[in-house]
Amino acid sequence: MSVLEIRNLHASVEEREILKGVNLTLRSGEIHALMGPNGSGKSTLAYVIAGHPHYTVTEGDILIDGESILEMEPDERTKAGLFLAFQYPVAVPGVSVANFLRTAVSNVRGYTAQQTEAEGRSGVIGSNLMPMREFRKELNEKMKEYNVDPSFARRYLNDGFSGGEKKRTEVLQMAMLEPKFAIMDESDSGLDIDALRVVADGINKLATPERGFLLITHYQRLLNYVKPHYVSIFYDGRVVMTGGPEIAHMLEEKGYGWVEREFGAEAVPA
Amino acid sequence: MSVLVKEPEAIVHAVQGFSADTVRAHSAARNEPAWMLEFRLAAWRQFEAMPWPESTDEAWRRTRLTGFDLNQFTPVANAAGKVEKGELSKLLQAELNEMDSAASMVFEDSGLRNSVFHARLEDHGVIFADLQSAVQQYPDLVRKYFMTEAVKPDLNKFTALHAALWDTGAFVYVPANGRVTLPLQIILNQATAGVGGYHHTLVVTEQGAEVTVVDDLLGAKDGLQASVVELIIGAGSVVRYMNLQDFDHSAWNFLTGRAVLSRDADLRWIQVSWGSRLTKAFLDVDLMGAGGHAELLGIYFPTGDQHIDHQTLQIHRAPHCFSDLLFNGALKDKSRSVYMGVIQVHPGAQKTDAYQRNGNLILDPTARADSIPGLEIEADDVRCTHGATAAQVEEEYVFYLMARGLTRAQAERMIVQGFFQAVLDRVPVESVVHKLERVIERKIGG
Asked: Which of A92, A106, A126, B337 is the most exposed place for a label (fewest CB within 10 A)?
């Protein structure tokens, strides 16, 4: 049982505050949907949790099982059990999915540290990877399970991938890295209904009692396929309301205009 | 044929410095026929008559010869004589074992050290000979093609010097419809420090012939290497050529290469420039016949104070030809690279399809890459595109890879390797790909 806690988190970019005191707790086994209008700062929250260097945390904390991760580099956060599925995964030409993922998996599972320690060597990059045969076998199995064509192993990471292919590959990477907490940043955006189903199936398969999910989304759409335990509304850099799945339905009915009237700067406090 | 009156070493050492006498002694030591001696002497006269490149010459504006003095080198190295493969240095044995070749030749300093034939080339009329022997054994072919068609002695100061003093190198001749499936491997190790070397590669293919040739160039500590590559490609012939330059970082390296393509010929030239303190390479593809297809692909990765300059020319003389050029380089420390390229389309070369791209990845703010692409088009129905980029490693890429658990160093390494992949993907020999990957890894590491 693990807990990801976000406490009174403030973050800014170029002196402009975007996160204005976010509070949110995610436990293993929970699916928590974070819904908000465009520009409310939801994607910023995802980036800040993952440690993007562009943003500065000015106040508050992010903790995994009580340990602050704020001082950690992005790769250390991933090793600590975080995974961010990007809204717009960048294409890295010349780097094959398999080659990159083998290094990533080896790091996250501690092959590097284990072997280096066991053999008393200094960490030479590339010399302490998960054995190729073992890796291939697992990758092939997971590609099958998560509906990714085997040819993708040799293709360059996200290079020339369609929107759906990119998001499916993100889910495959998550399945290989087996995080404790997955943050899905608009994993439903730009997908047709078939691609959306594949991504949703992947999330459902991976939503085990050992794993927590934060689904960041603008629309109700993804939630038709993935049932959240909690839904929070994000507005103007904060969580303004948390409840059960009924919140999503209410938003569907009332729209984000209601959120603005209710929680916007002009809103009259009740 | 002249008569050898002294031991070769004694002849060369009797003459000091660069002079016509040095040229004579060099030729005599190799027991060359009179026509070759005359060829060398004529080239020497041309060399003497030509001025040294100056910084006002467009080709040398960005690549200065500051600190270069011909007299700092011993003009010609000795030839150590042939040995069994097992007696070669470990380094050269490793280079030989690395590649699955049809035949291999190893040169050290100015002479052939070892040759291995795995395939029965001569049964098919294929010639793979060291050029020194070829002058004796195939005088008609050598006289016909050696520096007469592709690279003439008076092309530049260094080709003239090369023509006067050429020493190592191979002659490859593939008759009509002959096919050599495995690569022909040529290794040069300029072992003695401070000497001049003049490596020559002459490849001639007849109609429909296919061959892959690899030049693997090593050594040249504190030395000079003025090499020439000539690829004369027959109609419908397919040639794959790799020039893998990994000289010592103290070497002065001047390369002039030109491929001449007949109708429907197909060339892929991979130019790798890892080593040398300074490289100036002139690389031309000359599409003489209709329907020719030429790919010129280069990679370079200067570090420290290295200076690497490639100047290319894609000449479209005939209609319906395709040429594609891609040079990708990464730069570290205080290194510098220059890329200058021209696509030249002659009148009448309609339906030309030509590309030219140069990409630079600047890894340190102290490194500098100059890129000057150019077009000279005198036909009206053509498609030509060119472009140059200089970029740093994008922080967004690094973040994405780090968010998947790669360390910053691993992420940067992978992005740099990926940058070279567009060229590596087109290297036709797998063992060469692995070798290049290892060098890239070494260069990124430090």
From this structure: A126
